[in-house]
Specification:
single chain; 5 helices; 2 domains
Length: 91
Amino acid sequence: MTGRCWSCIFARKAEIRFVAETDPARIDCLQRVLDAMERDPAPKRRLPKPKPPPTIHDWVDRNFDAILIMVLFPVALVFTLWLLRSCGMLL
């Protein structure tokens, strides 16, 4: 908090607004920016497009190795246990 009363804050905002509206340097600068945007609308198009939200396919692509391990490890474990039991090495 600034430690100022509301009337002081509103007076300061009004003063800033008055200076912004009457200061010739600021007015010229804003007018040049507006003129440049009217002549060349390309700066508006230069903004990057937002990324689309991730989908389940993106998640699978990023985590394919982990998914493969989670799926194949139990299968390999069951196969190994079956093989050891069928050979008589596991009771």
